[in-house]
């Protein structure tokens, strides 16, 4: 059994929610009035859908943007990526435990073992 403190739980949930907010804010939006380029007479190519970023790749990109660290090696970045995957797994396990409204707040959260 592992125990997750409220602080760790809050940090993990903030990370998950901030990733979704950042992804929605960084989606480019264009309007025809803002486009200074004239329209081409040839038919445009069919746009290919962008492949979505994996959660850990997105979070690593955000961390690299906010806290640039040119001294990190590829092995160090992979270690950070593994930590992000682990934290997301913990958040998913916490989210999977059903709670009713009559359960009071706890100082720690004990995750039942996986079955």
Automatic annotation (TrEMBL):
Region (Disordered) residue spans: 28-54
PROSITE patterns the UniProt entry points to: TAT
Record-linked InterPro entries: TAT_signal
Domain of life: Bacteria
Annotated protein name in UniProt: Uncharacterized protein
Protein species of origin: Caulifigura coniformis
């Amino acid at each position: 059994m592992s125990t997750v403190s409220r602080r760790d739980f809050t940090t993990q949930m903030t990370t998950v929610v901030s990733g979704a907010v950042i992804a929605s804010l960084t989606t480019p939006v264009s309007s025809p009035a803002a486009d200074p380029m004239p329209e081409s007479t040839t038919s445009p190519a069919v746009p290919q859908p962008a492949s979505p970023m994996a959660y850990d790749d997105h979070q690593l990109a955000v961390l690299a943007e906010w806290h640039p660290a040119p001294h990190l090696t590829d092995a160090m970045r992979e270690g950070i990526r593994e930590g992000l995957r682990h934290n997301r797994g913990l958040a998913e396990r916490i989210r999977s435990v059903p709670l009713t409204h009559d359960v009071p707040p706890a100082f720690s959260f004990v995750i039942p073992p996986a079955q």
